Sequence to fold (349 residues):
Amino acid sequence: MQRECDKYLHLNHESCKLNQAESAVATFFESRGLSVERLCARWLSEKGLSPDFRMSRDNQPLFLCEVKLIWSSTAALPEGDWHYNNTEEYRRLIEESEKQKVPLLALPDQIALWKGEIPYPAEGRNTKQKERGYEEKIKQILNKLPVALLPLEVTLHRHDPFIWRDEEIQAFVIDLVEKLELIGSGQIPHDWYCDFGTYSGHYRQPRDHGRFIHNFIRVQKRGDHLVLNSISHLGINWQKIEKDCREAQRQIRFRLYQEHGGQDLARVVVLFIEEDLIYEYLPDLDKLKDQIKRHIQTKSPDLSAVAFCNPIVSDLANLRFIVFHLAQEHTLSLPKSIFDNGVSIQIDL
Ligand SMILES: [Zn+2]
Fold:
């Protein structure tokens, strides 16, 4: 890897040091046969913006690349997205029912939700931090009960974008204890199933205004006392991703205008996030494309591609990217071969 900082030896390059994600990206692109140049953050005084890397092939600069680490990539939907999702779902279902020539079946509550007649909850959004608190509360209640002695491992999957109130947690635990006692005595709870020793069931509880608490529970006979793990699936924090992409666009744009004169290069952002986007959107990849269009393509119209990666940095050459190629009117496209390492997924928008 070349380092632009070497050209400015008299400057302090503390802010140019590579973090773990940037090192991973540099190693990956070198393994793809590109020459990687680390760009200096101080190249043009204090005010000069710059992305992290310039990638070249055969001495020809190919693209500029900015790397972002997004630590708060998980949070429940903010109000705007919540309303948008609800109306989108409605539009889609209407379309589908017209196509199939069947009436739209829905509860009055659901229809009110889709039409935007139900307000966003005043308590605000759920977060991973709050989920940790809920898990603690459940453990404390369980630990005081006889079920704490059962040799069971319970995994709770939470899909709840809203605040879980104390009385709702209490009601859930009462239901859970009933199920665990049945399993402990060798029975399968009603509406649950048992597959190769794993018991699974859903807890779906309506709350006011057409919203639901939705928990998925798995139980295995294991260990010598009750163990509870909680996993929350809150959805992707698109607001944060949007903001980081815009900032990356600004950094790349500044450098290109200042330095490359009329010459344009492809512009790439690599985002490390905690959640696996494909897993998150597995049932509906169109929805994922829709989010990329809304939050990245329209808000950062300069970018050629965005590549998402989970922060696993053990096997650098085999990083798995989910790359979105953004067809933009005035921007060069990125050759697909660059990410073609056999494990990455590439999607055209
Ligand atoms: Zn530097």
In short: Helices lie at 20-31, 79-99, 108-114, 128-143, 166-184, 238-259, 277-280, 285-297. The first strand starts at residue 2 and ends at 3.
